[in-house]
């Protein structure tokens, strides 16, 4: 029944998209020739000269949407993600349209019309999908268009998933029960009674010793999908269950019991024909993404040096006048791939021994600080020379803050996943800093933010962090 509903929904989506694109074409032409051109069309070219190429694009758009998987029912996909895919499809469609005009030799085609059509088609489709998604979510919350699922096995991940399903009714999942044998009965009782992962006892359908009875459950029309949450030590049993599911024509999903060791975005890749589960997807491992980020770093750091050069020159003069010693303070930090580099800062303390500088934190009333040093630390002016580190390639504008080798050796054993931060270039500012975790704050929270940034990097996220850095200011109350 669910599959039939999905087929009908897909056909409906295609039909709605055709109508929406057609409306966008007509609206674009109306705006172009009635508001911008006062109802006048060039004498040489008829209205069909402009509208027919756009109508020819309708089937091409449908193919593009299908290739981008916009006609699959993604219950768990966010609305923002779908909107992002729609924008990408429309950009691709416009590029194809321009190429088509070139081959048709329609070089005088209205540029305004192309721009207006792109904006309207993108807007109309986004509005259409947001409205449709909202309607479907409302329907699923009321118990319609739901998928009936059966859990086989019990572990902490089972309970975690059940809680999320209960809290997100719009996903449209109805849990029919949990099947497990006597070997797992004790595990169920322990986990179900745990207050942190509590599962209602109503999901305890039965205790079975022989998984062959599963076929009887799956042949009923009440089960649409199976989630297998058995420990991997039950490999033979998992293999048998998958075989029974395929025999009954019911989709099955295996949720591995080692997920607590996996990041929020694992991935699968192949070496030869052997699939492997990657524990952490890092977008900046992609060459194109690295090129975008490096270009952004070079442009932004160059602009920043030009803008802040008067402040830096004034800082150099004041440090030179008020405190004996070098103006630039050089310190070893651990960067990309755990390589040590020299980071530059304006000196904010009296000259000290290298052995002390390597292992001591700065405290609130640290006697080593100069009066002007306290000011430039609070206002982050001492960090300005790091723009040159960015130009050199040691650092990025955005990324996890680098730490001294002594503290890296200390934290790698004390803070879970601390060393993950070294999979990308360190930054002058980052996701942790704009969320308030800078200076004398929690290392654990800082690392959580750093890992989120590493796993979710995008150019848009970098722009957001730059904006938040300016919006929230450079003054740091935790900088001592």
TrEMBL record:
Residue spans crossing the bilayer: 12-35, 47-65, 86-104, 110-132, 298-319
Full protein name: Undecaprenyl-phosphate glucose phosphotransferase
Membrane topology: Multi-pass membrane protein
Primary residence: membrane
Family: Belongs to the bacterial sugar transferase family.
One Pfam family from the record: CoA_binding_3
Subcellular localization: Membrane
Bacterial sugar transferase domain segment(s): 293-472
Keyword Transferase: yes
KW Transferase (keyword) present: yes
Keyword tags: Membrane, Transferase, Transmembrane, Transmembrane helix
Superkingdom to which the source organism belongs: Bacteria
């Amino acid at each position: 029944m669910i599959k039939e509903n999905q087929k009908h929904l897909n056909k409906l989506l295609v039909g709605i998209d055709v109508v929406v694109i057609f409306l966008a074409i007509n609206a674009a032409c109306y705006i172009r020739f009635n508001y911008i051109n006062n109802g006048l069309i060039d004498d040489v070219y008829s209205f069909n000269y402009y509208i027919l190429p756009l109508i020819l694009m309708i089937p091409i758009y449908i193919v593009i949407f299908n290739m981008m998987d916009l006609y699959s029912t993604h219950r768990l996909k966010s609305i923002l993600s779908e909107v992002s895919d729609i924008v990408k499809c429309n950009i691709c469609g416009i590029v194809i349209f321009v190429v088509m005009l070139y081959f048709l030799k329609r070089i005088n085609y209205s540029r305004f019309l192309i721009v207006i059509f792109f904006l309207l088609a993108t807007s109309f489709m986004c509005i259409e999908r947001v409205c449709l998604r909202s309607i479907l979510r409302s329907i699923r919350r009321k118990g319609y268009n739901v998928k009936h699922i059966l859990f086989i096995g019990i572990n902490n991940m089972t309970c975690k998933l059940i809680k999320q399903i209960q809290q997100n009714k719009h996903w449209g999942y109805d849990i029919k029960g949990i099947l497990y044998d006597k070997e797992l009965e004790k595990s169920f009782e322990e986990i179900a009674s745990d207050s942190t992962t509590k599962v209602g006892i109503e999901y305890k359908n039965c205790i079975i010793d022989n998984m062959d009875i599963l076929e009887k459950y799956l042949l009923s029309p009440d089960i649409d999908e199976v989630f297998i949450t058995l420990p991997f030590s039950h490999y033979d049993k998992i293999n048998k269950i998958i075989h029974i599911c395929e025999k009954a024509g019911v989709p099955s999903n295996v949720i591995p019991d080692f997920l607590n060791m996996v990041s929020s975005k694992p991935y699968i890749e192949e070496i030869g024909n052997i699939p492997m589960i990657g524990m952490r997807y890092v977008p900046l491992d992609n060459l194109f993404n690295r090129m975008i980020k490096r270009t952004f770093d070079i442009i932004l750091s160059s602009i920043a040096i030009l803008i802040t050069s008067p402040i830096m020159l004034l800082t150099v003069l004041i440090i030179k006048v008020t405190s004996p010693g070098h103006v630039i303070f050089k310190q070893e930090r651990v960067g990309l791939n755990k390589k040590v580099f020299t980071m530059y800062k304006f000196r904010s303390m009296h000259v000290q021994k290298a052995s002390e500088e390597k292992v001591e934190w700065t405290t609130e009333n640290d006697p080593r600080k100069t009066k002007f040093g306290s000011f430039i630390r609070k206002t982050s002016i001492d960090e300005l020379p790091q723009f040159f580190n960015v130009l050199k390639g040691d650092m990025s504008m955005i990324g996890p803050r680098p730490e001294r080798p002594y503290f890296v050796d200390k934290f790698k054993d004390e803070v879970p996943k601390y060393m993950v931060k070294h999979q990308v270039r360190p930054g002058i500012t980052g996701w942790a800093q704009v969320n308030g975790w800078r200076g004398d704050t929690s290392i654990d929270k800082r690392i959580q933010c750093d890992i989120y940034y590493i796993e979710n990097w995008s150019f848009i996220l970098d722009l957001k962090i730059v904006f938040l850095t300016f919006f929230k200011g450079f003054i740091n109350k935790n900088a001592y």
